[in-house]
Amino acid sequence: MKALTMALMLAACAFSVSAQTTPQQWTFTATSESAPNAIPLLDASGNPYPCTGQNIDSVHDPNPNCYNPLVVTTDWTLTEVLGVVTSVTSNTPDTLTNSACSANSGVAGTSISETNILGLYRTTFSVTFANSATITFTGNLTLGGSQFTGSFVSTGSCMGSDSGNFTATLFPAVNATYVGQFETSSGGQGVAINLATDSNFNLTGTVTPASNATTCFSNMTIASPLANSFAASFASGDVLIAVASDNSGNVVGFIASNTDANGYALASDGLYFTYFGLAGVCSGIFETDAPFRMERSTSPRHRRYRSRDEVKTFFGQETDRNFSPMLRRED
Question: What is the pLDDT of residues 192-214, one digit of tens each?
Fold first, then answer.
């Protein structure tokens, strides 16, 4: 009896040791929709693009209508034992969306259910807004796969009964240094941005101007106590949000992506950086789509921010128009 008990204990220990957890960053993009739901793009005058005429948002969008495709970015943790998925947990604070529901009602909860059969698991991912509206994505994912497809449905008046198909893409964590220039009245100013993502999707790093640069900030630290008092720094799907401060009290918010405002990807896995000054002498200074090259390999990101007001609103600044951020984080 003792021998049997010991054998069971050893087997249980071996089973426990074999469990592995993997942080994952996913972006869900609608490829067809019954009713446009994403917050529309703005033209140069600050007006939404019309649904007729030549001013479509981007020829690269998979959605053929005049608005952006519905996008949800999220982080979750996959647990598997001996190649079998035992659980998938989502991180609600790191779930972002461009849905019209996010204009007045943030993401209040997320959930994942899955059924695993020999490494192929059927995943249902649900997003619930504070006003009780929901979006539910369902698709089949192969263990170790980096993309899957499926269908989605929604509830709530702000969703307009939107439904259709989607593609979900997995993005590895960024841990790299990027070098480029921010344009100022004095010309291009060289800057190096080092980024690191931990297993909880927190983003840290540094922003270092070149020795001859005349930027509004000096050496900055991402996710410093002062920076965190403005907004958290984190990765969600293919979106990177970084807030940094220097020793002089300057605070700047950065949003990074691999595509520019027109949907064109930067070669060699580079990133476009948009920034907005939040405090100090940098306050109010803004630049979008500054290209930075990567110094060591990582995977490309595929999300863009287009307007000054989108970035201002995201970082809690007042705007001169009633416009909601493309992506909103709710803690």
Answer: 999 999 988 899 999 999 888 88
Instruction: Check residue 328 and give its pLDDT.
Output: 34
Q: Is the pLDDT of residue 67 over 60?
A: no
Token pair for residue 113? 């259910």
Residues 136 and 162 in one domain: yes
pLDDT average, residue stretch 283-288: 81
Task: List, in sequence order, every residue forming a beta bridge with 290; answer none if it has no partner.
Answer: 273
For tokens 């100090």, name the residue.
280
Q: Are residues 272 and 141 in the same domain?
A: no
Q: Is residue 166 domain-shared with residue 183, that is, in the same domain?
A: no
Tokens of 229: 């008092």
- DSSP letters for 43-73: -TTSPBPPSSSS--S-TT-SS-SSSPPPEEE
Range of the domain at 117: 19-171
Cβ atoms of residues 66 and 49 within 8 Å: yes
Residues 264 and 140 in one domain: no
pLDDT recorded at residue 80: 77
Residue 137's nearest CA partner among 27, 290, 293, 280 is: 27
- Residue type at position 19: A
What number is the average pLDDT over the span 231-247?
Answer: 89
Parallel, antiparallel or unpaired: strands 164-171 and 71-81: unpaired
Domain count, the chain: 2
User: Do 74 and 184 reside in the same domain of the chain?
Assistant: no
Q: Among residues 171, 168, 192, which one has the least CA distance to residue 180?
A: 192
Assess if residue 90 is contained within a domain.
Answer: yes
Longest CA span, the chain: 82
Please tell me whether residues 109 and 60 are part of one structural domain. Answer: yes
